[in-house]
Design goal:
It is built from two helices and 33 strands. It is mainly beta and 447 residues long. It has a seven-stranded antiparallel beta sheet, with no helix packed on it. Helix 1 links the parallel strand 1 and strand 2. It is globular, with a radius of gyration of 21 Å.
Length: 447
């Protein structure tokens, strides 16, 4: 298609047709890909993706990026920025003997840093087999007025992991154990004894990953939210940091996950990141210190919306959250008048889409939403609207036009403003492993 550029392309016929994998190369390729995130940092476009070993929502999933410094005309070679610990990898979806990342979401902090939140799971199949998750194990505990991760031995006895990876026993005495890095490498004295996110022995390794074995002390099997940071427009990235303990509450259960796409930095400098709980209620977390700490309103822990969602801010400061409907129909809508601290459930907005993630951004009073337009995940469009005001306050969006992105399969997508003239969209153009980019003149969309 004219103006369409292939950014990530799988190379395995199990997940993509033979004629398409011929386009996979060292610059764009890997076994499989899903879940795009796209953002502009300085003069650089950053495209982030789940780089998968088996084409499923589990297995060995790394975080990878490509960047463009000329508005999306040319792109850097693909680069992995974080790889999870694994004891076994396979190129088929019958293997889940690996921790994994999934669902990146980026935002630009007021100081210019790129903040990326992403889900992280220990060895399991995540939401696709909840029986493997540790529903009764507490993942964090308070110690000296701060929340710390909890790990467990085979008898169910708990230990705390405090600063510098020091491990305390259940009487808060220091042990010989220490967790040496974010990946969960456990040492007893100077002896490496395995990884806290894995179970059992090292097995097959078809994805050419660094593999290891499970430790005698283990983190609860559940979803965690990790944060990465780049202070140089995506050239280098920090190690992932677990921030889940900043905002987790008991009613979240074993899953509080990132809604993929982009976050929102408000006019008053608050970073709002969209999360959700077990495919149900949405969660709004925020930072007022460039992502150093994260918060959640205790009076209103959920955001009056549902499932994966994205947010925009109108010129008058009102924040609108657009959710993912249960089936084809109007899009759920919630509204905040205080920069995402409190939310009001609104009537669904008249944007019709199937059950699928969508992306939404605004430029001034204009709103752009990329989504599938059929009753199934097909025929991508950008729908254009304007914020609707009643008595001087934003109450919704009036949608008035749409522009085609593609014909055929269309699923997850992400929009960003490239410059004063263009916006870009990164989107899944096949059921797996074929992620494309297009850009559009803003003037043509709003005309």
């Amino acid at each position: 298609m004219e103006n369409e550029k292939l950014i990530f392309c799988g190379n395995n016929e199990l997940f993509l047709s033979k004629d398409l994998i011929e386009q996979s190369n060292e610059s764009n390729g890997g076994t499989a890909f899903r879940i795009p995130s796209l953002i502009k940092a300085g003069d650089t476009l950053i495209a982030a993706i789940d780089k998968q070993s088996c084409g499923a929502d589990w297995g060995f999933i790394e975080l990878a990026i490509r960047t463009s410094e000329d508005g999306g005309e040319t792109w850097s070679d693909i680069r992995t920025i974080a790889a999870p610990p694994a004891r076994e990898t396979r190129l088929t979806d019958d293997c889940y003997a690996s921790a994994f990342f999934i669902d990146p979401c980026m935002a630009i902090a007021p100081n210019g840093d790129v903040i990326m939140l992403v889900d992280f799971y220990p060895e399991c199949k995540g939401l696709h087999n909840k029986r493997l998750l540790d529903k009764k194990k507490i993942p964090y505990s308070m110690y000296k007025n701060k929340m710390y991760p909890v790990i467990y031995d085979r008898d169910g006895k708990f230990y705390l992991v405090i600063e510098n990876g020091v491990v305390l026993d259940n009487h808060y005495n220091e042990t010989e154990y220490r967790v040496a890095d974010w990946k969960g490498s456990l040492y007893k004295g100077d002896e490496y004894v395995g990884n806290i996110y894995l179970n059992g022995k090292t097995g097959k390794n078809e994805a050419d990953a660094v593999t290891t074995f499970g430790a005698p002390l283990k983190a609860p099997k559940r979803n965690y939210v990790f944060m990465l940071r780049s202070s140089d427009n995506g050239k280098t990235w920090s190690d992932p940091v677990d921030i889940t303990g900043d905002f987790l509450i008991k009613s979240d259960g074993t899953f509080i996950g990132v809604a993929p796409g982009v976050g929102l930095t408000t006019q008053d400098g608050r970073i709002i990141m969209p999360l959700y709980v077990d495919r149900k209620e949405t969660v709004s977390i925020y930072s007022v210190d460039n992502g150093e700490t994260w918060h959640r309103m205790t009076q209103q822990p959920y955001s009056c919306n549902m499932d994966e969602w994205q947010a925009v801010q109108a010129p008058d400061g009102t924040v609108l959250g657009l959710g993912r409907q249960k089936r084809y129909g109007k899009t759920p809508l919630s509204i905040s008048h205080d920069s995402g601290k409190h939310w009001i459930k609104a009537k669904p907005t008249s944007l019709y889409a199937p059950k699928c993630q969508k992306s939404v951004i605004n430029i001034g009073n204009y709103v752009f939403c990329s989504h599938a337009s059929e009753k199934k995940r097909a025929n991508g469009v950008i729908t254009i609207g304007r914020f609707n005001k009643v008595k001087g306050q934003t109450v919704g969006i009036n949608w008035y036009a749409e522009v085609e992105i593609n014909k055929g399969f269309f699923a997850y997508s992400c929009l960003t403003q490239i410059d004063d003239e263009y916006i870009g969209v990164l989107y899944e153009s096949q059921p797996s492993s074929y992620i494309c980019f297009k850009k559009y003149k803003i003037a043509d969309l709003i005309d």
